[in-house]
Every structure is written in structure tokens, then in C-alpha cells.
Amino acid sequence: MNMHTVVVGTSGAVADDVIAVARGEARVELSGEALEALAASRKVVDALAAKPEPVYGVSTGFGALAVRHIGPELRAQLQRNIVRSHAAGMGPGVEREVVRALMFLRLKTVASGRTGVRPEVARTMAAVLNAGITPVVHEYGSLGCSGDLAPLSHCALTLLGEGDAQGPDGVVRPAGELLAQHGIEPVVLREKEGLALLNGTDGMLGMLVMACADLARLLTSADITAALSLEALLGTDRVLAPELHAIRPHPGQAASADNMLRVLAGSGLTGHHQDEAPRVQDAYSVRCAPQVAGAGRDTLAHARLVAERELAAAVDNPVVLPDGRVESNGNFHGAPVAYVLDFLSVVTADLASIAERRTDRLLDKNRSHGLPPFLAGDPGVDSGLMIAQYTQAALVGEMKRLAVPASVDSIPSSAMQEDHVSMGWSAARKLRTSVDSLCRVIAVELVAAARGIELRHGLTPAPASRAVLEAVRAAGVEGPGGDRFLAPDLAAAEAFVRSGRLVAAAESVTGPLA
């Protein structure tokens, strides 16, 4: 049992907390400060509910229907109805970790005391997370504005004991049954609470936080495989010298160049390009690897800054301000998050593109500087890694299509009341696909570069490279030789990269890499 606990207070959350809850099954606990803030803001909402003047979300309809004043006798039904009607998602269910991140981030905003939700509703949200109950949330239904509405509505529906959810055993059952099994009472919503549970950027933000963590590891992985490819191609490491990168002071570029230089330290393969067929300089895909990966690192740093700001935010409409005012606002608009999600899709596509170019160079006898065609055992009889590069190219092709931004594709909704939306949820969904594909692309480069190094008979790779080769072979990826069923090798390489073992193998020699 995971005994790690994340305490939810009034000051937001940090990325590590999101990942601990979403992926690590960490328990959540509301702080005393949060419970006090919840109670205080609820008093404000109760006072407004008692007044005859209409207040959006408290005593009115929603969106384009906000012109209707709702009397006290219909307000519980109003809040219940917004959850039911907005739980209108379609398509396949999204991943459990995404739903847990979304639920945790909505609880984080509720706990800020800016939403007017009662403490008992927040306690129920925490209890559902801690019980391992995961609402069924569908792929389609969010425009990334006015909150990730349909996804959050499906989560809120579970709090009411309605709809479907996945139990800790992975079986989908009626939510009411799961709540009863874990001794959780369904909530009965009061004024503003239904709206407050739906109105945030939590889904797209959760996916951004997880993508940032995954990309950080993959950027380091890409530096390692680029270094291995440079070795296999008998390239020069002189282009990685720190003084060259100091005169173009992008911090990510310097970090990637330093990673590559440390992996290549002590190599007996680098610099041999002058021995027989003189090359003045290596091809761009080899020589400019730090510039491309470094630009990705700097973009990731910006995305993390946006995520940190959003994690500190309390996104709701209307919002309870510290001075007791309840004001409508537009903070639910997902543009800040959507933009960086789209930007990271560009990063992943381009990082994959340059990795694929290095792989293709390794397989082409006219450009590989003495390696056999397609790194095959007996070229002609054997095809070697020919089709592995096809698979890699297919992945890169899709990633380029996924790099088309979603955030410029606003489609008006709610009878033109919500006439400009962010499409941030869509940007997040395609980024998740692209990050998965990048892992596979790096895995194919790893397989090719490792084979290329091993085919350089009589030359000794760097100690860090040898550590990677030994680890990847121990992971079930076979070395040079005749043709065999290749898909299992590629799957093993993918798992090796995804698990972080590639980085760990290199760092066993280099120490921590950036």
C-alpha cells in the first residue's frame, strides 16, 4: 500500500504532487487551513443565495441561459442538472492517470476557498480519490473554455453517485455501487457547487504536467542516442565544446551539448572521420543535435513556468474574492495552457524528425562511412533494420500532423455566448500521443546506433556508451546478426527508454545528466 500523502492547502499545488496522485496512487488530505477557507467562502455564497438579486451560478441559469433567475426551490435541481446535462462526453475513455490528475486539480482549486463549495463536498472528492474510484471520462467533450466541462462533469457525476466509474480493481461499475462499497455518501449539491466542480482547466493542466515530466526524460534520452549515433558514424565531438555553445547562450543548447560530451568521454570512435574519407564536418542531424534538443529544453522550461502559474491559480467563475466579493471573470479560458501544449507538440515532432534522420544515415551505406547496408548481417539475404526505419518514419509523419496547433481552431458554442474557446483539451490529447511516439522513435535510433557501434570492429566506444549497450542487450534487444522477428526487439527498446533505464545506464558512468 502506498502510504505517501499529499496535503491539499489553500496555496495551490506543485507538479510533483500531481504526478504522485495521478501515477503514484498517493493519498490526499485536506489541511485545516483549507477546511477553514472552504467554510468561510461558503458563508459568502449562502449570504448571496438569501438575497433577492440574481447572482450567476448561485441563482441563475448557465451560459446563454444566465438570463433566467432561479428561485430557492429549484436551486438544488439546478446544480444537479448542470452536472447531468454537461456529462455529455463521447468516444473512448481517457487514461486513469489523466482522470486522477483532473480530479486532484479540481480539488486543489476547491480547497483554495475561492469557489464557495462546502467542506463536505471537498472531503468527498478526497475520499473518492483515496478509494481508487476513477470516473469514466470520455475523449471528446471539452473545448478548453468554461473549464474542461464534459470531463469534469463526468467526475462530478460520480460524486452524486451517478454514472459509471472504474473501481480500484479496474472493473467499470455504477458509481453509486462503488461509493457504497467504500462507505462514501453521495453529495447533494447546493447553490453554486455544481458549477464550481466543472469550471477549470484541470484536465489540460494535468496532462501538461505529466507531459513535461515525460519530455524531460525523453530529452535526456535523445541526447544519449544522438551521442551514440555520432559514435557509430565516426563523427567528431569537437562541435560539442562548451566554448562553442557559450557564444550562443541558449541554456538548453549548452545542457544538451554537455550531455552528449559526457556520454562520449573516452570514446575511441569519435574523430576517425578523417582517416580514410575526409569530412570537413558532420551532417546537420549529427552536428546540430544540441541546437535542436536544446531549443526543446528551453521550450519545456517555458511550459513548466506556465504550469507552475496555473498550479497556483484558483480557476472558477464566479469566484469568491478575499474581500468577500463574488465576481464573474474569464480565468477559465485555457489559452495559456493550450499554447504551450501546442508548442510542445512542435518540439516532440522536430526532436523525432532529427532522430529519424540520424537513423536513416546509419542505414544508408552511402552515408554511414563504412557500415553495411541497413546494418544487415548479410545484405541482400538480410534486410537488417530497413523496415524499423519505415516504422520510425511513419511515427514521425503522424507527429508532424499532430504538431498542427489546436489552439487556433476556436469553434463558438453556447449560442455564441462562449464565442472564443481554447481547444486546450484537444491540444493536450494530441501531445500525449506525440510524446508516446517520441519514445518509440528514440527507441529505434537506440537500436540502430547500438548496432552501428558494435559493427565498428577494432574501435572502442566510450565507457558510458558501453554501459548503455550492455544494459540494452540485457533488456532483450539483440545485437548484430542475421534477420529475426524484429518487433520484440523494438518493443523491448521502447520499454527500456520509457522506463528511464536508458538514462540510468548512461548516468551510471557520467553521473547525473541534465
TrEMBL record:
Claim: Lyase is one of the keywords in the record? yes
Which positions are linked by 5-imidazolinone (Ala-Gly)?
C145-G147
Gene3D superfamilies, from UniProt?
Fumarase/aspartase (Central domain) (1.20.200.10), Fumarase/aspartase (N-terminal domain) (1.10.275.10)
Q: Does the keyword ATP-binding apply?
A: no
Pathway annotation = Amino-acid degradation; L-histidine degradation into L-glutamate; N-formimidoyl-L-glutamate from L-histidine: step 1/3
Name its cellular compartments: Cytoplasm
- Which InterPro entries does the entry link to? Aromatic_Lyase (IPR001106), Fumarase/histidase_N (IPR024083), HutH (IPR005921), L-Aspartase-like (IPR008948), Phe/His_NH3-lyase_AS (IPR022313)
The reactions it catalyses are: L-histidine = trans-urocanate + NH4(+)
Q: Tell me which HAMAP family the record gives.
A: His_ammonia_lyase
Q: Which family does it belong to?
A: Belongs to the PAL/histidase family.
What is the official name of this protein in its record? Histidine ammonia-lyase
Where is the organism placed in the taxonomic lineage, from the top? Bacteria, Bacillati, Actinomycetota, Actinomycetes, Kitasatosporales
> Which gene carries the instructions for this protein?
hutH
